[in-house]
Design goal:
Blueprint: H1 4-14, E1 38-42, E2 45-48, E3 53-56, H2 71-81, H3 92-104, E4 110-114, H4 117-132, E5 136-140, H5 158-161, H6 172-176, E6 178-181, H7 186-195, E7 200-205, H8 221-232, E8 235-239, H9 251-256, E9 262-265, E10 276-280, H10 282-285, H11 304-319, H12 322-345, E11 350-354, E12 357-361, H13 370-374, H14 378-390, E13 393-394, E14 403-404, H15 411-424
Parallel strand pairs: 3-13, 5-6, 5-7, 7-8, 8-9
Antiparallel strand pairs: 1-2, 2-3, 4-10, 9-10, 11-12, 12-14
Helix pairs in contact: 2-11, 3-11, 7-8, 12-15, 14-15
The structure holds (4S)-4,5-diaminopentanoic acid.
Length: about 425
């Protein structure tokens, strides 16, 4: 494949944008080489500036669950753009969006729209602190909840990809209030809670982790966390930025049958536009201003173009619940195909999958937390990534990210992917 235009664009970008990208993982730092610059996308395919075509397994890191440039979403955006792109005043569409979300997900009495998953998680933690009057939170190693200061401790995604141990600019005071332990280790949480009795405001978790590859909660783990939260009056926050409206219409809460107190959303909820949201049970959410004094605001919160893109996407998912089954079947088909290829290859590997989230780790043991994800063979991943890219398969450029399937993918696309994997090892 020729990448000469992408190379020129990357050179040019670096003169004006830190590292040439507006979000670090895109820079291909951990896999090496030059990021491909995308020009357009349609359905399951991306087209880069050199005219190369790729089968997309990132789906904009989750949002494009229906495929790129989905006609109903594009038409809705076009129509709403003619009315104005922002008012800074309430609209009926925001109520419709909130009502639609409430009709799809459990445990959401009140919901506030924001512009990103980072804002959603940051605000949910503020609510938990405001509600409980406590300062500390527990997060899990390798989980990523956006780039707000409190979360940049032992974080996954780009922080793990770039192997950043301590983030300069995050004060020790903030880090001090973020306690961490390994994902899937209930005993470690019990210990932390008993050592910090009556000081923990919230436990925040990705119910299925997607920022250290895809990692599933072990049976009983989330139930155990729920019990601890109930016993200790800790607010249980599900970060469903990745899993929300992706694992099922009701997200991980519905798929895994666990209740959260507060839930955060991003990605799919905006249909590819910058949208996030935090919501939950009334008793927690009524501390949010102007009902209560926990302040949170945003000029572009509930932006009409973002709302109509998200609303149209969610409505499509709600009206066509078979999409989730189709997505899961396609993902299992991919997993089975990759399994066959990797089995014959003879080197160690693990594939984790739930619904339309999947990742391959070149590891000789089960990948259940950040430690096990980190010991996988990253050199092998790099080679695999580049070999796949050259064959027109666009995977996340880091082993610390989940792959996301979109429903525009056909079985032929997946067969091509499996075939490419066979030639890439
Ligand atoms: N943090 C995102 C995935 N976990 C990556 C966002 C991006 O680079 O676009």
């Amino acid at each position: 494949m020729n990448h000469s235009i992408s190379k020129q664009l990357f050179e040019r970008a670096q003169a004006s944008i830190p590292g040439g990208v507006n979000s670090p993982v895109r820079a291909f730092k951990s896999v090496g080489g030059t990021p491909v610059f995308i020009q357009k996308a349609k359905g399951a395919y991306l087209f880069d500036a050199d005219g190369n075509k790729y089968i997309d397994y990132i789906a904009s890191w989750g949002p494009m669950i229906l495929g790129h440039a989905y006609e109903k979403v594009v038409t809705a955006i076009q129509e709403y753009a003619t009315y104005s792109t922002s008012y800074g005043a309430p609209t009926e569409l925001e109520i419709e969006m909130a009502e639609l979300i409430k009709s799809m997900v459990p445990n959401v009495d009140l919901i506030r729209m924001v512009s990103s998953g980072t804002e959603a998680c940051m605000s949910a933690v503020r609510v938990a602190r405001g509600y409980t009057g406590r300062n500390k939170i527990i997060k899990f190693e390798g989980c990523y909840h956006g780039h707000a200061d409190s979360f940049l401790v032992k974080a996954g995604s780009g922080v793990a990809t770039l192997n950043i141990q301590t983030v300069p600019g995050v004060t020790s005071g903030v880090s001090h209030d973020t306690l961490t332990c390994a994902y899937n280790d209930l005993n470690a949480v019990e210990k932390l809670v008993s050592e910090n009795k009556n000081q923990i405001a919230a436990i925040i978790i990705e119910p299925v982790a997607g920022n250290m590859g895809c990692i599933l909660p072990q049976p009983g783990y989330l139930e155990g966390l729920r019990k601890i939260c109930d016993a200790e009056d800790i607010v249980f926050i599900f970060d469903e930025v990745m899993t929300g409206f992706r694992l099922s219409a009701g997200g991980a809460q519905q798929t895994l049958k666990i209740d959260a107190d507060l839930v955060t959303y991003g990605k799919v909820i905006g249909g590819g536009l910058p949208v996030g949201a935090f919501g939950g049970k009334k008793k927690f959410m009524e501390v949010v201003a102007p009902l209560g004094n926990v302040y949170q605001a945003g000029t572009l919160s509930g932006n009409p173009i973002a709302m109509i893109a998200g609303y149209t996407t969610l409505k499509e998912l709600k009206n066509n619940p078979s999409i989730y089954q189709e997505l899961e079947e396609k993902t299992i088909y991919l997993k089975n195909g990759l399994n066959e290829v990797l089995k014959n290859w003879g080197e160690p590997y693990t594939i984790n999958q739930l619904g339309s989230m999947i990742s391959v780790h070149f590891s000789n043991r089960p990948v259940v937390d950040f430690a096990t994800a980190s010991t996988a063979d990253n050199e092998r991943f790099k080679k695999f990534f580049h070999a796949m890219l050259e064959k027109g398969i666009y995977l996340p450029p880091s082993a610390f990210e989940s792959w996301f399937l979109n429903n525009a993918l056909s079985i032929e696309d997946i067969d091509r992917t499996i075939q490419a994997a066979k030639q890439s090892l």
